[in-house]
Amino acid sequence: MAVLFPSGRRLALVRSTALTLLLALPLALALDAAGTQAEAQEVAALPQENAPYEMVRTLQMLQGQVAQGNTQAHMAQRTLLQHMNEAFLAAPPSTWADARNARAAVIHLLSGGHPNVIRKLLTLKAAPAVEEDLMRGALAYVDGRPEEARRLLSGYDPMDMAPSLGGQVALVRSALEVADNPKEAMRLLAIARLLMPGTLVEEAALRREVFVAGKLGDIEGFQSLSIRYLRRFRGSIYEGDFRRRFGLALDSLGFSENDDRFALLESLLAEFDEDTRRGFYLRLARRAVAGGHLSIARKASERAMPLAMPGTYDETQLKLYQAAVSLRPEDIQSTRQLLWSIDRKSLTPQDRDLMDAAYIVLNHVRHWPEPPRGVIGEFGAYAILPAPADSSWSKPVMVQAERLLKQTEDLMSKQKGRF
User: Fold this and answer.
1) pLDDT > 90: percent of the chain
2) What residues have CB less than 8 Å from 390, skipping those under 6 apart?
3) In this predicted model, what pLDDT tens digit does every residue of 314-343 receive, in sequence order?
4) H helices of 91-162, where?
5) d(Cα 168, Cα 157) in Å, to the nearest integer?
6) What is the pLDDT of residues 108-157, one digit of tens each?
């Protein structure tokens, strides 16, 4: 078990702790796949003489590397949190009389630490040097009791706290406000970024702000926040979650419904890699087709097609979307060929329905429409067209039909005066 030394010893260790952990943890984690014996060796190799606030400082440094895409740091974080859980639970009650350590316990919990640490602190006879409501609110949040957490934490202004704690509290409070009060959530996320720049807290705040900007209909904010995220945290371990939130914001902001908005989006999508751009254009094309916004569907599918690998399902979908928006009379032949090139069996049920609908429209365009119900007589005028220059269009059955029609017309002319 970890042993916490008196404060005099701690001061001598402050300078070396962060560097030692950051160097030792990734090396130890390289043996993680070897099993539980290797894991035990990793924990044993960690420095044992750290105050809670020092270990939290190291954790936040490590998480900053996670935000930059360091996979070793991401794995090392688990071992450090496990070590902190053991050390915090073993610490004597006097440890928590230091406000820095008491705040560190709350930060530890909100950073992924085990809730048993705070549960233990709440049972101590000598109250820790941090507000009880803050501890209970943080515990309610991680335990999945949002209403209680919101009530307990609403009175705490992150700007009045130490930045390392205030940033975490702002992030948590924003998550509790976003459903009912997205504007307040946006304000709190901006505070979280302000208090903890360059950290995982800032990275998480930016990810969430992109989504909230979509809820608020703030296109300008959505664009600027997205670009800021991509330029500061491209390659983050959590970039996949950013792309998911970005896609949801595309839907809520109506980029697939408005030509002007679609034009604004193209420069933003240029910030992404080709695979991601293709995915977003495909998403926009799908929604535009479903919503009947054919010009946007056409543009989105045209942008995505050069990015699709031949023979992939993405290419098949894009062919289908291009066919669905090219059902004008002058496009009949090319659209028919495009539809014929698609293997219907390979489509999802939703895409099969779209293909069937495209065929129905195509067949209606190819045939003279039926007259409205109740109309008697011809539907419209006709024109006599000259025969095509290429005589191969004429088949023997057509010649025979034309001869029979001519004979019928002659007979009718002869009989006309007799009735």
Assistant:
1) 62
2) none
3) 999 999 999 888 877 777 888 888 888 998
4) 99-110, 116-121, 132-142, 146-153
5) 11
6) 999 999 999 999 999 999 999 999 999 999 999 999 999 999 999 999 99
Q: Which residue ranges make up each domain of the chain?
A: 1-155
Task: In whole angstroms, give the CA distance from residue 262 to residue 244.
Answer: 19
Tokens representing 230 are 């991509």
Dmax (CA) for the chain in angstroms is 129
**Cα separation of 180 and 207, whole Å?**
19
CA distance 257 to 286: 11
314 Cβ contact list (under 8 Å, min separation 6): 278, 282, 304, 308
In contact, 41 and 80? CB cutoff 8 Å: no
Task: Give the whole-angstrom CA distance, residue 205 versus residue 191.
Answer: 9
How many CB atoms are closer than 10 A to CB 253?
A: 22
Residue 202, CB half-sphere, CA atoms under 13 Å: how many? 22
pTM: 0.72
Summarize the confidence of residues 47-57 as an average pLDDT. Answer: 80
